[in-house]
Write a structure and sequence with these properties.
The protein is mainly alpha-helical. It is globular, with a radius of gyration of 17 Å. It contains eleven helices and two strands. The chain has helices at about 5-10, 15-25, 60-80, 90-110, 115-130, 140-150, 155-170, 180-185, 205-215, 215-220, 225-235, and strands at about 25-30, 35-40. Bound molecules: fe (ii) ion (FE2).
Length: about 240
């Protein structure tokens, strides 16, 4: 880290200390033998300090930039309509959504755009704070079952499914945020466009719908989702 970067780290130390709770909580664990991915929240795994340094992300390849940003965007979206969250969460989630949606295209057109990288990381931090203080809903429930069962990357599944889940939950989105806006962004990303392109076999969809419908995340969704509705959603994304 150069002296300029070190100065930036010192200047934003307060922010970084606040970041510690969002950086690793909640975290996912995949049991490859059973094909199950679980989300856990445990203060014991939190780092004492998390440093968000945009300079170390400048050479992150476009696919990983897009996938990780879409995961962060999904955290903001799900925290924004979480039913049991503190009133602190929704405005922070909305700020995260705005920052990620405006900065991701700039990061993809020029990976060395430091301002855009910093904006994206700040958005990701705010999204992490949001979801650390809210329950995950249907979107993450689907991504976790699909990821555990198919091995597809979490960020790719987030990108493919987020517009579909947002359409399903459209009555609960923050004002000014639309599924079609996210779908338009997703269409520009260097990621698989559909579940079939991400290596998810069609035969997996019924078992994913069944598992997701029984999971606590479906129960936490702002709009109740039946197994049949979840299967329709998955087929639309396939
Ligand atoms: Fe996630």
């Amino acid at each position: 880290m150069g002296s300029a970067a070190a100065a930036r780290v010192r200047a934003s130390l307060g922010t970084m200390l606040a970041a510690e709770f969002s950086e690793v909580a909640p975290h996912g664990i995949t049991d490859r033998r059973s094909g199950r991915k679980q989300v856990q929240r445990d203060p014991a795994v939190l780092p004492a300090l998390a440093i968000y340094d945009p300079e170390v992300t400048l050479d992150l390849p476009a696919g990983q930039t897009a996938g990780t940003a879409m995961n962060a965007l999904a955290h903001g979206v799900e925290a924004g309509y979480a039913r049991d969250a503190s009133p602190l969460v929704a405005p922070v989630a909305l700020e995260a959504i705005h920052r990620i949606m405006r900065s991701l295209p700039a990061c993809l057109s020029n990976g060395h755009d430091l301002e855009a990288r910093e904006d994206l990381l700040t958005g990701a931090h705010l999204a992490g704070f949001s979801i650390a203080n809210a329950r995950m809903a249907l979107h993450h429930g689907l991504c976790h079952v699909l990821g555990g069962r198919s091995g597809a990357a979490h960020g790719t599944l987030n990108a493919v499914l987020l517009p579909h889940v947002m359409r399903f939950n459209s009555a609960f989105l923050p004002s000014g945020i639309s599924a079609e806006g996210v779908a338009a962004l997703v269409a520009t990303l260097p990621l698989p466009a559909r579940l079939r392109d991400a290596g998810v076999p069609a035969g997996l969809l019924p078992v994913v719908a069944s598992e997701a419908a029984a999971s606590p995340t479906a129960g936490a969704n702002p709009r109740p989702a039946s197994e049949a509705e979840i299967l329709d959603l998955l087929r639309a994304a396939w």
